[in-house]
Design brief:
Immunoglobulin-like; Methylamine Dehydrogenase, Chain H; five-stranded antiparallel sheet; single chain; about 425 residues; four-stranded antiparallel sheet; 2 domains; 38 strands
Length: about 425
């Protein structure tokens, strides 16, 4: 992944730069806090009040977001508004708030659920089967279009943030403190799996059964095998990414702390889009490859051209193939384990270890390496770092070699 490159020339080394005038415009400023948006066509969209709003409500626009009308008071703030199609939609939020509409948002019904925590994410596989997650370790499933919900648990999760399934059986839930869980039985049971990033994860989205993305505290991770393996494809440069939205099999937008990233080739390359003034961007919603809305700091921005590009963040295919980080062995380990990696050209290499909170535990390598295979030993009791004599638990090791960044999980058992 390349750092953001401002347009100074038509190309730089292996990558090219694209530039145009800003494609984003501010179209509305909400008088109070808003935390959720969703558009179902070029004119019709919905918004939900945020936690600091004095009056909690759901609002609707019929002119593309330029004006908004109040639909009804909710008493609780809304975290997400989700439409499976133009008719069937849901609004979820605090204290077990779950509303359903079947007529494009004209009427909304409060669905009774026995939950008091905050609903965070929701996904429907079809008009009958869907899942939602709350801000603890609980997943709820519906098989009757959202009229009733049954619960299961991602045991040990601190806070689930989003959920998505790629078929009737296989689904993923992601959350804070690098929590990621997988279900292989339709959401009845969940098991923790290898996390793609050493940071919290806030949104997950698949464009087909094989290819999906996760955004979070350090950037974007991608899978091309249905979630079995994940690799970092973009480092956001310290900016937390909160939301990702895709259209078709090619187009995607990811937004967060003062950043908008865009891909038009299934997430192979990510480009930084021109966006001024900078805001803390919360959510993104699109209806096609051109019409996209972004919410941040009580302001709504829109592009009808897909957004403009100022630079390209790219992890080139040959770079990915030429560098490899292997799974540590043994794993689980006590107290030491070996980590192998390969470098096929001279690069500055960094290999670091982190805990579940993303705190750096040790730097194993930080020097220039020539092409070749390398092995380094990590000892949980005697490594050089700020913390020694580590306790049992999950840890992560991350390799940075040139533009290549990959993270893997290891387990210490004492």
């Amino acid at each position: 992944m390349k750092n953001l490159i401002f347009v100074l020339c038509f190309f730089f080394l292996r990558t090219h730069i694209i530039f145009s005038q800003s494609g984003w415009e501010l179209i509305y400023s909400f008088p109070e806090d808003v935390s959720a948006i969703c558009f179902i066509d070029t004119l019709t969209g919905f918004a939900g009040s945020g936690i600091s709003a004095n009056t909690k409500k759901i609002m609707k626009t019929t002119d593309g977001g330029e004006t908004w009308n109040d639909l009804f008071i909710t008493n609780n703030f809304i975290t997400r508004i989700y439409f499976y199609n133009n008719n069937l939609g849901f609004a979820i939020g605090e204290s077990g708030t779950l509303y359903k509409t079947t007529d494009s948002g004209i009427d909304w019904t409060l669905i009774p659920v026995s939950e008091t925590e905050i609903f965070k994410g929701i996904f429907l596989l079809n008009e009958q089967i869907g899942w939602t997650c709350i801000g603890a370790d609980k997943i709820l499933r519906t098989t009757d279009g959202g009229n009733s919900w049954e619960s299961s648990f991602t045991t040990g999760a601190i806070s689930n943030w989003d959920i998505e399934f790629i078929n009737d059986n296989t689904g993923y839930a992601v959350g804070v403190y690098a929590n990621m869980y997988k279900s292989s039985d339709g959401g009845i049971t969940w098991n923790q799996v290898t996390e793609p990033m050493v940071a919290s994860m806030f949104d997950i989205e698949f464009i087909n059964a094989s290819t999906g993305f996760i955004v979070g505290g350090v950037g974007i991770a991608k899978t091309i095998d249905g979630g079995n393996n994940w690799n970092m494809v973009l480092n956001s440069g310290g900016s937390q990414l909160n939301s990702i939205q895709t259209f078709g099999n090619k187009f995607a937008w990811a937004v967060g702390q003062d950043k908008i990233f865009y891909s038009s080739n299934s997430g192979t390359n990510w480009m930084a889009q021109s966006f001024t003034p900078y805001s803390y961007l919360q959510q993104v919603s699109c209806i096609d490859s051109l019409n996209v809305w972004v919410l941040g700091d009580r302001k709504l921005y829109r592009t009808s051209s897909g957004g403009s590009v100022t630079g390209i963040y790219q992890q080139t295919n040959n770079l990915v193939e030429n560098f490899t980080l292997y799974q540590n062995y043994p794993n689980p380990f006590n107290p030491s384990t070996k980590i192998q990696y390969s470098v096929n050209s001279t690069q500055n290499v960094k290999l670091k270890v982190y805990d579940l909170l993303g705190t750096e535990i040790a730097t194993l390598v930080n020097e220039e390496k020539s092409a070749g295979e390398y092995e380094v030993e990590f000892n949980a009791n005697s490594h050089s770092g700020s913390v020694r004599n580590l306790t049992s638990g999950i840890y992560f090791y991350q390799l940075k070699a040139g533009e290549y960044v990959v993270t893997k999980k290891m387990v210490l058992i004492k």
